């Protein structure tokens, strides 16, 4: 049901899956028609609550952040975190009802007797985050910890915790976390000095971890230095830290305090002091950082998916408002300035979705052993983390402005989305760090040429030939610039390189999506605009570029 009173539009009650007119065809394109038909009902079911029940729970949890209970009534150290009942309801939706932490690891989610590909998990997350951002951190941590443990942990350790990490029963479930950041080190992971000591056949960790999200998780991946004589990341090993010991006693670490964060207020982030805490070694002692990067990359992709989902919510709300609210004897959407603003939001919003959905597709192929997909995915991850997580801040601000004064009021989702939007560009590496990671990924193992050839092949395999010459020219232009600047590992052009490569890739993927179905043909036009204004950058968007039919097509 759509509510409108005194010219104030309210989209509450609209199914968020149906209102996004291209989502179904995009999911079908990336996961195949047969599988999509089996899971579409879950997207419809989630879409039904995103703009109603879930939004109400999210707004409530945001206003009632978790609280740290340091001691029990008898004075014992407890490290308990009290979560608001509405956040627990959100946890049940994520972990139990939709099984988002389990579906990449188990064969029985949704009763399909198969592990579901990443596009299903990220597609549902993309929809879920349109109301609730905070839960996606514990979700991502649990999912990616399980992945890293399976990939590098020994068989007995995996067997010990797998069932609880992938459970769809919240009372039995073990949630995951990643404790990496330290005060003095920040993004310089090689400066970590938390120390791991091996005694009597076990490992014990001592040190301070400065920013630990989901700090009361049952299991956490922790980086610690196993040899003080080895500096940098080479001296780091990866450990699995349990919240409780096998005898049921609490492990020897303390949550010092919870962070009072700008965004992501519904879930806890804290500081942890490790006091000779017991931990299990994961994988090779000398490859801890390399192993942890797998979990970091999954978290970075998850951040990109969240950014894209929030942008889509902002775009859909802005389209709804401008098509429903009247001003100056016209609908807002009929005004040229509004059309221009919506078009600018549309370009970067849909670019992000193409990038994250394509990354999910590449991840699926990479995990099945495709070497080229592994290399392309390694580059795609920092591209998405850098650009999508920055673009969402702009889109969230514009959406708030389109709603007007009410967009600044906490009764609506706009303030929460704006606060949450700033977190993605800080977590798992700030923008400068991420852009430099793009340079490292491109320089390694001739990846720059592999990525270039991947984009060229994508263009040539597309049936829309009228764009081929222009796209190939754009590829040459961008990669000539990259190769002229990439010699320095700390090049001052790393941000420009990352943005150019991101938008170039998205333009190519958008055209391929548009080629799949008439319902997606508008994406070809978006691709043209991206090339013109994000690659060529020859002029600002003019009135002549505003394709009103393109905007109307999305309403």
Low-pLDDT segments: none
Count of DSSP strands: 13
Number of helices: 18
Pairing-aware structural class of the strands and helices?
Answer: alpha+beta
| Overall body shape | globular
Helix content: 40-55%
* Strand percent estimate: 5-15%
Please identify, by name, the CATH architecture of the domain at 176-287.
Beta Barrel
Largest sheet: 7 strands, mixed
Intertermini distance: 16 Å
Instruction: From the 3D structure, determine the CATH topology of the domain at 176-287.
Output: Butyryl-CoA Dehydrogenase, subunit A, domain 2
CATH top level class name of the domain at 176-287: Mainly Beta
- Cα radius of gyration in angstroms: 23 Å
Give the overall average pLDDT.
93
Walk me through this protein's architecture.
By secondary structure, the chain is of the alpha+beta class. Among the domains are: about 175-285, Butyryl-CoA Dehydrogenase, subunit A, domain 2; about 430-540, no CATH class. Helices cover about 55% and strands about 15% of the residues. The chain is built from 18 helices and 13 strands. The strands form 4 sheets. Strands 5, 6, 7, 8, 9, 10 and 11 form a 7-stranded mixed beta sheet that branches. Helix 3 packs parallel to helix 6 (about 120-130), helix 7 packs antiparallel against helix 8 (about 155-165) and helix 9 runs parallel beside helix 11 (about 370-405). It is globular and about 75 Å long.
Blueprint of the fold:
Blueprint (H helix, E strand, L loop, with lengths): L2 E3 L2 E3 L5 H4 L3 H9 L1 H18 L2 H11 L3 E5 L5 E6 L2 H13 L20 H11 L7 H17 L2 H11 L10 E4 L15 E5 L2 E12 L5 E7 L10 E7 L10 E6 L10 E14 L5 H37 L1 E2 L2 E2 L4 H32 L3 H33 L10 H8 L9 H13 L3 H14 L7 H18 L8 H23 L5 H15 L11 H5 L3
Parallel strand pairs: 5-8
Antiparallel strand pairs: 1-2, 3-4, 6-7, 7-11, 8-9, 9-11, 10-11, 12-13
């Amino acid at each position: 049901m759509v509510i409108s009173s005194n010219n104030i539009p309210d989209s509450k009650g609209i199914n968020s899956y149906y209102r996004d007119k291209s989502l179904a065809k995009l999911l079908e394109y990336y996961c195949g028609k047969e599988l999509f038909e089996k899971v579409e009902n879950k997207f419809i079911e989630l879409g039904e609550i995103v703009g109603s029940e879930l939004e109400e729970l999210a707004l409530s949890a945001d206003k009632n952040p978790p609280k740290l209970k340091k001691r029990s009534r008898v004075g014992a150290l407890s490290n308990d975190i009290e979560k608001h009942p509405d956040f627990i309801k959100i946890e049940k939706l994520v972990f139990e009802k939709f099984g988002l932490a389990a579906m990449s690891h188990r064969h029985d989610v949704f009763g399909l007797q198969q592990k579901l590909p990443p596009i299903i998990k990220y597609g549902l997350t993309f929809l879920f985050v349109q109301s609730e951002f905070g839960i996606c951190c514990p979700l991502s941590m649990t999912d990616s910890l399980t992945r890293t443990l399976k990939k590098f942990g020994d068989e007995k350790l995996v067997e010990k915790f797998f069932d609880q990490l992938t459970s769809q029963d919240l009372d039995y479930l073990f949630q995951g976390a990643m404790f990496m950041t330290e005060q003095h080190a920040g993004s310089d992971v090689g400066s970590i000095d938390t120390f791991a000591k091996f005694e009597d056949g076990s490992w014990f960790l001592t040190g301070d971890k400065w920013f630990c999200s989901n700090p009361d998780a049952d299991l956490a991946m922790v980086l610690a230095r196993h040899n003080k004589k080895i500096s940098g990341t080479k001296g780091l090993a990866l450990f699995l830290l349990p919240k409780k010991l096998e005898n049921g006693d609490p492990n020897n670490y303390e949550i010092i305090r919870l962070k009072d964060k700008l965004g992501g207020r519904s879930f806890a982030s804290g500081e942890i002091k490790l006091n000779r805490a017991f931990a299990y070694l994961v994988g090779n002692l000398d490859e801890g950082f390399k192993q942890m990067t797998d979990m970091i990359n999954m978290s970075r992709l998850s951040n990109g998916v969240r950014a894209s989902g929030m942008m889509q919510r902002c775009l859909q709300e802005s389209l709804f408002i401008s098509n429903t609210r009247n001003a100056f004897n016209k609908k807002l959407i009929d005004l040229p300035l509004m059309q221009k603003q919506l078009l600018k939001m549309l370009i970067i919003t849909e670019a992000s979705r193409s990038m994250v959905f394509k990354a999910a597709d590449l991840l699926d192929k990479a995990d099945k052993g495709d070497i080229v997909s592994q290399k392309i995915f390694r580059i795609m991850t920092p591209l998405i983390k850098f650009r999508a997580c920055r673009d969402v801040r702009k889109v969230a601000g514009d959406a708030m402005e389109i709603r007007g004064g009410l967009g600044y009021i906490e009764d609506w989702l706009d303030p929460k989305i704006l606060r949450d939007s700033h977190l993605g560009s800080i977590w798992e590496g700030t923008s400068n760090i991420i852009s430099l990671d793009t340079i490292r990924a491109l320089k390694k193992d001739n990846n720059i040429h592999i990525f270039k050839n991947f984009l060229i092949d994508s263009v040539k395999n597309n049936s829309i030939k009228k764009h081929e010459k222009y796209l190939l020219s754009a590829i040459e232009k961008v990669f000539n610039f990259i190769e002229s600047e990439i010699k320095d590992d700390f090049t001052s052009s790393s941000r420009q390189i990352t943005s150019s490569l991101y938008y170039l890739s998205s333009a190519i993927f958008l055209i391929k999506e548009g080629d799949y179905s008439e319902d997606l043909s508008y994406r070809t036009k978006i691709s043209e605009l991206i090339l013109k204004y994000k690659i060529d950058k020859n002029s600002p968007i003019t009135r002549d570029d505003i394709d009103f039919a393109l905007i109307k097509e999305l309403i």
